[in-house]
Every structure is written in structure tokens, then in C-alpha cells.
Write a structure and sequence with these properties.
The complex is a heterotrimer of chains A (273), B (164) and C (403). Helix content of chain A is 21%, strand content 33%. Chain A has 6 helices and 15 strands. Chain B has 4 helices and 6 strands; from the N terminus they run H-H-E-E-E-E-E-E-H-H. In chain B, strands 1, 2, 3, 4, 5 and 6 form a 6-stranded antiparallel sheet that branches. The N and C termini of chain B lie far apart (65 Å). Chain C folds into 2 domains: 23-260; 272-397, no CATH class. Chain C has helices at 23-26, 41-50, 110-113, 149-163, 170-177, 195-198, 230-237, 246-260, 272-277, 284-289, 297-301, 347-365, 377-380, 388-397; strands at residues 34-37, 54-61, 64-69, 80-85, 88-93, 117-126, 129-134, 142-147, 179-185, 210-217, 220-227, 242-243, 308-314, 320-327. In chain C, strand 13 and strand 14 (320-327) form a beta hairpin. Chain C is globular, with a radius of gyration of 22 Å. The chains are: A alpha/beta (273), B alpha+beta (164), C alpha+beta (403). The B-C interface holds B 151-155, 159-164 and C 334, 337-341.
Chain lengths: 273, 164, 403
């Protein structure tokens, strides 16, 4: 299993996104940064603490740094969020099936993100912006808890101000300083005027949110094979050995995390699967 | 200047009414304008008026102890604000404030209730439409109640699947 | 072949004559089968050791038949058999000198190919720098003595699960390649066996180095032995054997036929994978949950269960850490842990996960094996005698029922 042993990476920067979420920029101690596709993840090893699977949230077209956005929800992720520049972690990967490209040129691409779900979608946004001519419309719908819980706020503003991508942001609740929308992501989807025959939708966020977002997209007529979700299950090895990430017959670590609705649809309603 | 009855087509819950019903409803409405920060509705006050938004954003708020109110929903073009006019005790339960300049059709609740009582077909039609509207609002409220982006009910990718 | 009735059968030695003598169809071989006399069995063990393998085989220990190093034939469970049924296992005396007159015990060969605990790497923190070193994978040369057909299929299942994938388990492969397999056609069916139903026995198929069939008469006691690999042929060539006669081969056939006719359980496998996939909300899952203790015995004794967990420990100086892998069970609450709660909180959902993996989703995941090999261990070793064949039959009988 020598190919499955982590390689050391150094923290080059750690940026606070919200009160419990950090974006880490890592550089390999030796050699080149691993190449990756949008939607893939790595196992990050914190010395003595263990490994956690974290989606890559950076630009695959930019060499050198490996970017991960981590939320502190347990001992290992808390440790990762408190790392300083110069600290070292272990990285192995990339793993998993990432976001698909457009079915045809000049299709519309709709990205629906909720909360931390914007992080695994951001590489897809970067890739789409770099290959902008492959799409007609590029739309991002992003929902969060409150305005100060939103990720990548500088970039969101940049994207919202620009012409390349249509951005709609909505929060569950806000204080009056917020001039944007308050409500839920499915209601943004309902207002979308899109051609379902030419639309690919990529959805990532809490599972409940993804279920309702998918329902709203399907109601607009999107074909199940063009609707892709990033699923999450317990992962201990990321390479299909430990068996933990199974969901039905899929191993999320290698058949996913991105799965299309033809696979997800029949399963997502089965309780405790 | 367009007639109110034509403008009703812009309002989702009032689209596609029979011409007779459309005119009855329009008869209870007038155009109105609010500036940024103006209150359309105040919590606890008699719910005499409801509003259909033609242009702009209205924020539904609840005052909190800490002074700064919490915005729990924003409503936009085509949405209707306020349904306390439908039922006793006809008192508003929330504040609603204009975000930026707001152009609305303001409907007299008592006027419309009177017409519904006189014409039960109209009444049934409007009750059905508002019932659907309230269902949709309830659904979005329930989704927010789950606090999916917070914890522990919600989840998020990359947050440590199995961080023990 | 006919399927046996429910209930156990103890080998009695009185069998019918075979109906065909075409040995090439009956016994899979690359060379002709030979006969080894029972009293020469130690020579087989010596030849295997001379070829550089430590012999691991069945022995009586702790009131059961367990696997461990075997130096001489005398260490085998001679004249021992067992009674197995739901939640029941007891050894008893056969009153003869059979070396392998029993079926499977609680252990399977996975403990040697896929060890219960395995260190994967060590890491050191040196002045802020992180050093990670892979653990060299131990691949001792071992001979597995007495691998039943079910267990041979189970090894093929583990091969599928751990090698046929994008990131194969190299340690498993190394251990697999350094293992000599001496398979055994069962002369006794265990009380909970259903390999006939799953198509995984009792006749040993392909995938061994040597295969044995023990034939016992009042006046004769021999092994029909065949090789399927070069290593097997070399070992066989070192033994005092004779070419197996028609009569001796017929004797071996009768043994296998007798075992096949005395299965302890049946499992209707026709359309079973789809049936379970369509009954994920069946009320039976809640019903079995009332009995299941989620103790995980079934996953421990199952020869195809391969799930593991990893653990990280730091030494007292805080400078060296280890990353270890160990066996895990989908029956634990933590198995499906996510930060917002475990996905499979109810026992019923965990039982469903295990059973549908064995009998249903495995088929979609892997092409060359089945998740269940009909060994019956999960039935024998379940403290409350839950029976996978009974659960499957119950769901089939009420296909489509909803809770």
C-alpha cells in the first residue's frame, strides 16, 4: 500500500472564512502538487489525530497550491482549522469521481450550493469560467445560514458584479444590513427560466437541501442523467477497502462522491440506507 | 397608466383570474410606493391591508431582544405580502419593511373580505389561491427550521465525514 | 444434485454408488488424480514444509475447531465432528480416525490474508517536519490446509473486493501470492451449510494448489489428491502416491455426493438480489431488529466480510504516531458516523445493510464472486440464532410488504 501512504504538505496560508471554517492553502514538501479534477477529494492527515476526507476547493488550473476548505466539527478538523503557516499535514489522493463536464457544447450549467457545499463546487466554477465558451448560461445559486456564514464572499461579489456568471445568493435569516434575499434555495430554483433539454445541474450541500433542490430542478424538467449530486458518507480509507462509505451498491469514495440522479433518486428517499 | 386589473397578471397568486373576479379584486386595490426603510406592516397592528409587489424587495422581520431585528424572509416582484387580513383577529404578526424603493398594489382587506362574503365563488377561488401561497411559505419556513447549514441536523460536504 | 432436507446429518459411511465414471468431468484437475494413504499424511505435511511453507490447519482449541499451525497429522481433530445449528456449536466424537470429519469452525482464512490488525504506516514529527513511512507488508509463506469449497469461494470474493479495484490492497496481494492452498472436499456437511444453494460447493472448483478428498471405509482410508498448479504438482511428485483407480475415484465421488445431499439449510437464490433491492422498506427488517443484538458475531465469522476501520495512536513522547487498520463491523453505530449523526441508527437498518450487501449489492459491485458462500457460520454463531436463509425466505414470501 505504499501508493496509499500520505505525502507531506506544508501550510502556506490559512484564511478564515467563517467562525468555524478555514481555507487552507497547502504546498507539497517535495515534488509537484497532485493533479485533480473538480469534485475530487483528498484524505488529509493530522499528525496523531487521524485522516479526514476533504473536498478540494481550489482552482485545478493553477499549479502549486492545493486548496481545501475545512469546517471544524470534530477533533481532526478542529486541529486542521487551527494550523499555522509552516505546519505540515499528510495528503493522499485525489480520490473519487468528480463533476462531469457539459453534455454538449453551449449547454447551460447551473450550480446549486448550500453552506459548505460551495467548496467542492468552486473548482467546477473556476473550470467553467476558464472554458466559458463551452456554456451558454452559467448560473450559481448559493444558500447559507446567515450572511456572515457565507464562504468566499470576495469572490461572490466579484462574480455577482461580472458578466460571466449569474449569481443568486440567499440566506435563512439576516439582519437588516443584508440587502440580498432571505429564504431557501429551492425558491431560487423555481424562479429559474431554463431550458431543461440543455441544462446540466450540479448540486452540493447538506443532504436535506440537496433533496429539495433536486425536486425543484426535476420539476423544471431536468433529465435525471443531467442532475448530479455530491454525496457524503463515513469514510475511513478513501480507496474502497474499509467498506464504510457504501450507500446501496455504490462506494462513495470511488463510485462518487458525484453521482447522477438516476443512481441517487431511487435511494435518497430510503431511510437509513 | 395601466389599470390595476391588468397589473394583477404580474402577481403570481392572482394570475389567471376570470375577468369578473379580476375586476372585483382590482376594485379593492390602489397603487402605492414605499421608500427604503419604510414599514408596510407592523407587528400587532390591525391587518387592514395586504400588498402585492410590482417592483422591489420587502423584508419580513421579527424584532429581537438584542435590538437588531431578524429578517426571516424577503419577498420580491410578483409576491404577495400579508395574509392576516384573511382571518380573525386580523392582526399582523410580523414587521415588513421596504428594502430599496418599492412599488406595490395595496389591497383593502375589509373590502376584499366583503366581496368574498357576497360572492362565495370569488371567495372560494381566493381562499384556494391563498391557501396554496401559505403552504409554499410554510414549506420554506420548515426547511429553514431544519437549520441545515448549522449543526447538528444539517450536514456539509468536506466537514469531516467520520471525524471521530 | 438434489438438495438436502433441513437438519443435520452425521456422516455414516453408507452411500450409494455413482451413476457415472467420467472422472474428468467430476474432479477438476490439470493432472490425473492420485491416491495417498491416510497413514502417509505426515509426508504431505513434510513435503509442504520442505517447499518452504508453514502449515496452518484445523485444531481443537477452546471447545471449537480453530485454525493454527499444524506440524503433524496427529494435531488435527482426528475423529472429531461437530453439531451445528442456529446459535449452537458443540464438538463430539465420531468414533473413527477421520482427519477432517467436520465442517467449518468460527474462523476463516481471512484472518491470515486480511489480518485483524495491521499497521499501515508510522509518522514522526521532527522539528515541525512530518515524516511518514509505509510499513513493509509481511507476507509469510503459509499453506492453508483443508480449505473447503465455500472458503475457496470466499477467498475469491476477497480477491474481488480487494484486488479488482482501482487501488488494490498490495499487502493482501502479497499474502495471497505467498499462500499455498490445499483445498478439501467436505465429507461432512455442517448443520447450517447451504453451499449447494449458493452454488459454492461442496465440490471444490478452481483456485487451489492441491485438493484432497478423504475417503473412509472400515477397511480402507485414503485421500484422493489432485494438483492444479505447478507448485502443487511439485509437492505431489514428492509423495508416495498411486494413480487413483476407478473405484477409489468413485469413493471420492460418493463422499461429495453425500455431503451435497445433507445440507443443513436451503436458500432460494433465484432473483434474490433484485428481491432484496425492492424490499428495503419491508417490515421484516424491523422484526429481525427485535431479535438482533448487533453484536457483530456474524461479520466476525463471515469469510467474505472485509470491512475495516483505522486508528491513530501517538506514543508517550508525542513524537511518533501509528496508523493502524483493524477489522470493523457494519453493525456498530459508529460505522456510519457523520458529524450530524450516524446514518444507520436503528439496528434494523444495520442488519439490512449486512444482509443486502451479502445477498444483493455485492453482485453489482463485484463481477466474479458472491458475497455469501453458504458456509452457515453466521447462523451457527449468532447468539440468538438469526438465520439468513430464513430471513430471505420470509421476505420472499411477503414480497412488497411495507412497514
Amino acid at each position: 500500500m505504499t501508493a496509499l501512504v500520505p505525502a507531506p504538505y506544508r501550510v502556506a496560508a490559512s484564511r478564515e472564512e467563517t467562525d468555524d471554517t478555514q481555507t487552507l492553502e497547502l504546498v507539497p514538501v517535495e515534488g509537484e502538487r497532485i493533479p485533480y479534477e473538480p469534485g475530487q477529494f483528498t484524505m488529509i492527515y493530522g499528525f496523531g489525530a487521524g485522516e479526514v476526507p476533504i473536498s478540494i476547493s481550489g482552482d485545478p488550473g493553477v499549479a502549486g497550491t492545493l486548496v481545501h476548505t475545512v469546517r471544524a466539527v470534530g477533533p481532526t478538523t478542529e486541529m486542521l482549522c487551527s494550523l499555522s503557516v509552516g505546519d505540515e499535514v499528510g495528503i493522499r489522493g485525489p480520490y473519487g469521481r468528480g463533476w462531469p463536464g457539459p453534455e454538449r457544447d453551449r449547454d447551460d450549467l447551473v450550480l446549486v450550493a448550500g453552506g459548505l457545499g460551495l467548496a467542492p463546487l468552486r473548482p467546477a466554477i473556476y473550470r467553467a469560467l476558464a472554458e466559458r465558451e463551452r456554456f451558454q448560461r452559467l448560473v450559481l445559486l448559493y444558500g447559507g445560514r446567515e450572511p456572515d456564514q457565507l464562504l468566499f464572499r470576495d469572490e461572490l461579489e466579484e462574480w455577482a458584479d461580472g458578466e460571466e456568471i449569474e449569481c443568486e445568493v440567499i440566506v435563512d435569516a439576516a439582519h437588516p444590513g443584508w440587502r440580498g434575499r432571505v429564504g431557501v434555495v429551492p425558491s431560487l430554483i423555481e424562479r429559474l427560466d431554463l431550458d431543461p433539454e440543455r441544462t446540466t445541474a450540479l448540486v452540493c450541500g447538506p443532504e436535506v437541501m440537496m433533496r429539495y433542490a433536486a425536486a425543484a430542478l426535476l420539476e423544471l424538467g431536468i433529465a435525471p442523467r443531467r442532475l448530479h449530486l455530491s454525496m457524503e458518507r463515513n469514510m475511513r480509507c478513501a480507496v474502497g477497502h474499509c467498506g464504510h462509505c457504501q450507500w446501496g451498491s455504490s462506494f462513495i469514495c470511488r463510485d462518487g462522491p458525484v453521482l447522477d440522479w438516476a443512481t441517487v433518486g431511487p435511494r435518497i428517499g430510503v431511510r437509513e440506507l | 397608466m395601466r389599470e390595476i386589473s391588468e397589473l394583477l397578471e404580474e402577481i403570481e397568486v392572482l394570475q389567471g383570474l376570470e375577468p369578473v373576479d379580476r375586476d372585483l379584486v382590482a376594485g379593492c386595490g390602489v397603487n402605492a410606493v414605499f421608500s427604503d426603510g419604510d414599514y408596510l406592516i407592523r407587528e400587532g397592528e390591525p391587518a387592514t391591508t395586504f400588498f402585492a409587489i410590482r417592483h422591489g424587495t420587502a423584508a419580513v422581520e421579527i424584532a429581537t431582544r438584542s435590538g437588531s431585528p431578524l429578517v426571516i424572509e424577503t419577498l420580491h416582484e410578483g409576491d404577495v405580502v400579508g395574509w392576516s387580513w384573511l382571518f380573525e383577529p386580523h392582526r399582523s404578526r410580523f414587521d415588513v419593511r421596504a428594502v430599496g424603493d418599492l412599488r406595490v398594489i395595496a389591497f383593502d382587506g375589509a373590502c376584499l373580505r366583503g366581496k368574498c362574503e357576497a360572492d362565495h365563488d370569488l371567495g372560494f377561488e381566493l381562499m384556494g389561491r391563498f391557501a396554496r401561497l401559505i403552504c409554499e411559505r410554510l414549506q420554506t419556513t420548515r426547511l429553514r427550521l431544519l437549520d441545515v447549514y448549522g449543526s447538528p441536523v444539517g450536514g456539509a460536504v468536506g466537514a469531516g465525514s467520520g471525524d471521530p | 444434485m438434489t438438495r438436502g432436507p433441513r437438519g443435520r446429518t452425521i456422516y455414516s459411511g453408507a452411500l450409494e454408488s455413482p451413476t457415472t465414471t467420467d472422472r474428468r468431468e467430476r474432479l477438476p484437475t490439470t493432472s490425473s488424480p492420485r491416491t495417498l494413504q491416510r497413514d502417509n499424511f505426515d509426508l504431505l505435511l513434510e513435503a509442504i514444509r520442505a517447499a518452504g511453507y508453514e502449515v496452518i490447519g484445523p485444531r481443537v482449541a477452546s471447545g471449537a475447531i480453530e485454525l493454527g499451525p499444524i506440524a503433524r497429522a496427529a494435531e488435527l481433530p482426528i475423529g472429531v465432528t461437530e453439531q451445528q445449528d442456529g446459535g449452537t456449536y458443540a464438538l463430539s466424537n465420531r468414533g473413527d480416525r477421520a482427519l477432517f470429519g467436520f465442517s467449518t469452525g468460527p474462523q476463516s482464512w481471512k484472518r491470515y490474508l486480511h489480518p485483524p490488525v495491521l499497521r499501515l504506516w508510522r509518522s514522526r514529527r521532527d522539528d515541525g517536519r512530518l515524516k511518514i513511512e509505509a510499513e513493509p507488508q509481511d507476507a509469510p509463506r503459509r499453506a492453508f490446509l483443508g480449505v473447503r469449497s465455500c472458503d475457496l469461494h470466499a477467498i475469491a470474493a476477497l480477491d474481488d473486493a480487494l484486488l479488482s479495484i482501482e487501488h488494490p490492497d498490495d499487502g493482501y496481494r502479497a499474502r495471497r501470492e505467498s499462500t499455498l492452498i490445499v483445498a478439501l472436499n467436505c465429507s461432512t456437511a455442517g448443520g447450517t451449510c447451504f453451499c449447494v444453494s449458493t452454488g459454492t460447493g461442496p465440490r471444490v472448483g478452481s483456485g487451489y494448489d492441491l485438493a484432497l478428498t478423504e475417503v473412509t471405509y472400515p477397511d480402507a482410508h485414503y485421500f484422493v489428491i489432485a494438483a492444479e498448479s505447478e507448485e502443487g504438482e511439485r509437492i505431489l511428485a514428492a509423495l508416495p502416491t498411486a494413480e487413483a483407480s476407478e473405484q477409489e475415484l468413485a469413493g471420492a465421488e460418493r463422499v461429495v455426493a453425500g455431503t451435497a445431499a445433507s445440507m443443513g439449510r436451503e436458500l432460494e437464490t433465484d432473483g434474490l438480489a433484485e428481491l432484496l433491492g425492492q424490499n428495503l422498506e419491508h417490515p421484516r427488517w424491523e422484526e429481525v431488529a427485535e431479535r438482533c443484538l448487533s453484536c457483530g458475531n456474524c461479520t466476525s465469522v463471515c469469510p467474505t466480510c472485509f470491512c475495516t476501520d483505522v486508528e491513530d495512536t501517538v506514543d508517550l513522547t508525542g513524537e511518533t504516531a501509528e496508523h493502524r487498520r483493524r477489522w470493523d463491523s457494519c453493525f456498530t453505530l459508529d460505522f456510519s458516523h457523520l458529524h450530524d449523526g450516524s446514518v444507520r441508527q436503528s439496528v434494523g437498518s444495520r442488519y439490512r445493510q449486512w444482509m443486502t450487501h451479502k445477498l444483493s449489492t455485492w453482485n453489482e459491485q463485484f463481477d466474479h464472486s458472491s458475497g455469501c458462500v453458504g458456509c452457515g457460520r453466521c447462523i451457527t454463531w449468532c447468539p440468538v440464532a438469526i438465520d439468513i436463509t430464513e430471513e430471505a425466505a420470509a421476505i420472499r414470501a411477503t414480497d412488497g410488504a411495507r412497514a
